[in-house]
Amino acid sequence: MAKLGRYSSDRKKITALTASTSASVAKCGTVFTAVGDAAVVLTLPTIADAGKGWWCKLVKSGAASGGATTTLAAHADDGSTPMKGIEASNTCTALSGDDLVIADAAAPGCQAEAVCDGDRWIILAHGVAAGDITIG
User: Fold this and answer.
1) 11-18: long-range contacts (C-beta < 8 A, 24 or more apart)?
2) What is the spatial distance between Cα 85 and Cα 20, in angstroms, rounded to a whole number?
3) Gap between the Cα atoms of 32 and 16, Å rounded
4) Residue 20, helix vs strand vs coil
5) Could you state, in chain order, the average pLDDT of each consecutive group of 10 residues for the chain (136 residues)?
6) 51 Rama class: left (phi>0) / alpha (psi -120 to 50) / beta
7) For the whole model, what pTM was predicted?
8) 40 Cβ partners below 8 Å, 6+ apart?
9) How many CA atoms lie within 13 A of 130 on its CB side?
Protein backbone atom coordinates (compact mmCIF):
# COMPACT_ATOMS: atom_id res chain seq x y z
CA MET A 1 0.00 0.00 0.00
CA ALA A 2 1.39 3.40 -0.97
CA LYS A 3 2.03 6.00 1.69
CA LEU A 4 -0.25 8.99 1.70
CA GLY A 5 0.83 12.55 2.21
CA ARG A 6 3.35 15.03 0.97
CA TYR A 7 6.23 12.58 0.62
CA SER A 8 4.43 10.37 -1.89
CA SER A 9 3.73 13.17 -4.35
CA ASP A 10 5.72 13.94 -7.48
CA ARG A 11 7.81 16.77 -6.03
CA LYS A 12 9.96 18.88 -8.36
CA LYS A 13 13.30 20.51 -7.66
CA ILE A 14 12.92 24.29 -8.08
CA THR A 15 15.83 26.71 -8.55
CA ALA A 16 15.29 30.45 -8.92
CA LEU A 17 17.74 32.08 -11.33
CA THR A 18 18.99 35.53 -10.37
CA ALA A 19 22.03 35.44 -12.65
CA SER A 20 23.25 33.47 -15.65
CA THR A 21 24.40 29.95 -14.77
CA SER A 22 25.26 26.54 -16.20
CA ALA A 23 23.10 23.54 -15.35
CA SER A 24 25.17 20.66 -14.02
CA VAL A 25 24.36 17.03 -14.75
CA ALA A 26 23.18 16.75 -11.13
CA LYS A 27 20.44 19.31 -11.89
CA CYS A 28 18.49 16.80 -14.01
CA GLY A 29 14.77 17.19 -13.36
CA THR A 30 15.01 20.77 -12.10
CA VAL A 31 12.50 23.49 -12.86
CA PHE A 32 14.42 26.76 -13.19
CA THR A 33 12.45 29.96 -12.68
CA ALA A 34 13.43 33.43 -13.89
CA VAL A 35 11.61 36.42 -12.41
CA GLY A 36 12.47 38.72 -15.30
CA ASP A 37 14.20 41.47 -13.31
CA ALA A 38 17.46 40.83 -15.15
CA ALA A 39 18.45 39.02 -18.33
CA VAL A 40 19.58 35.49 -17.49
CA VAL A 41 21.07 32.63 -19.51
CA LEU A 42 20.75 28.99 -18.45
CA THR A 43 23.39 26.94 -20.28
CA LEU A 44 22.64 23.23 -20.65
CA PRO A 45 25.30 20.58 -19.99
CA THR A 46 26.90 18.98 -23.03
CA ILE A 47 24.77 16.35 -24.73
CA ALA A 48 27.46 13.73 -24.03
CA ASP A 49 27.53 14.54 -20.30
CA ALA A 50 23.76 14.81 -19.96
CA GLY A 51 22.92 11.57 -21.76
CA LYS A 52 19.53 10.15 -22.70
CA GLY A 53 16.71 11.25 -20.45
CA TRP A 54 18.32 14.32 -18.85
CA TRP A 55 15.76 17.11 -18.68
CA CYS A 56 14.99 20.50 -17.19
CA LYS A 57 12.38 23.18 -17.56
CA LEU A 58 12.86 26.96 -17.69
CA VAL A 59 9.84 29.06 -16.67
CA LYS A 60 9.43 32.81 -16.76
CA SER A 61 7.87 33.45 -13.36
CA GLY A 62 7.54 37.22 -13.28
CA ALA A 63 7.01 40.33 -15.35
CA ALA A 64 9.99 41.61 -17.29
CA SER A 65 11.66 44.93 -16.96
CA GLY A 66 13.07 46.41 -20.19
CA GLY A 67 15.17 43.94 -22.12
CA ALA A 68 15.22 41.20 -19.48
CA THR A 69 15.15 38.16 -21.77
CA THR A 70 15.42 34.64 -20.44
CA THR A 71 17.65 32.37 -22.54
CA LEU A 72 18.13 28.60 -22.62
CA ALA A 73 21.47 27.96 -24.32
CA ALA A 74 23.11 24.82 -25.63
CA HIS A 75 26.67 24.17 -24.48
CA ALA A 76 29.30 25.58 -26.85
CA ASP A 77 30.85 22.10 -27.24
CA ASP A 78 27.67 20.69 -28.80
CA GLY A 79 28.27 22.20 -32.26
CA SER A 80 25.73 23.96 -34.44
CA THR A 81 21.94 23.66 -34.06
CA PRO A 82 21.83 21.05 -31.27
CA MET A 83 18.26 22.10 -30.36
CA LYS A 84 15.27 20.77 -32.28
CA GLY A 85 11.67 21.13 -31.24
CA ILE A 86 8.43 23.02 -31.42
CA GLU A 87 6.91 26.14 -29.92
CA ALA A 88 3.22 25.80 -29.17
CA SER A 89 1.98 29.37 -28.75
CA ASN A 90 -0.50 31.40 -30.75
CA THR A 91 0.92 29.60 -33.76
CA CYS A 92 2.94 26.40 -33.93
CA THR A 93 6.53 27.00 -34.99
CA ALA A 94 9.38 24.55 -35.62
CA LEU A 95 12.50 25.34 -33.61
CA SER A 96 16.06 24.67 -34.70
CA GLY A 97 19.19 26.32 -33.34
CA ASP A 98 21.40 26.65 -30.31
CA ASP A 99 19.73 29.34 -28.14
CA LEU A 100 16.10 29.60 -27.13
CA VAL A 101 14.94 33.03 -25.94
CA ILE A 102 11.83 33.85 -23.93
CA ALA A 103 11.14 37.47 -24.86
CA ASP A 104 11.17 40.25 -22.27
CA ALA A 105 7.53 41.04 -23.16
CA ALA A 106 6.41 37.43 -22.73
CA ALA A 107 3.90 36.78 -19.98
CA PRO A 108 4.80 34.96 -16.77
CA GLY A 109 4.29 31.24 -17.29
CA CYS A 110 5.96 31.07 -20.69
CA GLN A 111 8.31 28.11 -20.57
CA ALA A 112 10.59 25.71 -22.37
CA GLU A 113 11.41 22.11 -21.51
CA ALA A 114 14.65 20.56 -22.74
CA VAL A 115 15.06 16.77 -22.97
CA CYS A 116 18.24 15.07 -24.17
CA ASP A 117 17.80 12.08 -26.47
CA GLY A 118 21.54 11.37 -26.53
CA ASP A 119 22.06 13.10 -29.90
CA ARG A 120 20.37 16.49 -29.49
CA TRP A 121 18.19 18.60 -27.21
CA ILE A 122 14.47 18.18 -27.86
CA ILE A 123 12.65 21.37 -26.94
CA LEU A 124 8.97 21.87 -26.18
CA ALA A 125 8.19 25.53 -25.60
CA HIS A 126 4.93 27.18 -24.59
CA GLY A 127 4.19 30.86 -25.00
CA VAL A 128 1.04 32.93 -25.07
CA ALA A 129 1.53 34.92 -28.24
CA ALA A 130 3.51 34.35 -31.42
CA GLY A 131 7.03 35.67 -30.86
CA ASP A 132 7.09 35.00 -27.10
CA ILE A 133 9.70 32.32 -27.73
CA THR A 134 12.34 32.35 -30.44
CA ILE A 135 15.37 30.23 -31.24
CA GLY A 136 18.55 31.12 -33.04
Assistant:
1) 16/61, 17/42, 17/70
2) 23
3) 6
4) coil
5) 59 91 97 86 96 96 75 91 82 81 87 94 88 80
6) left
7) 0.86
8) 17, 18, 19, 20, 21, 34, 68, 70, 71
9) 5
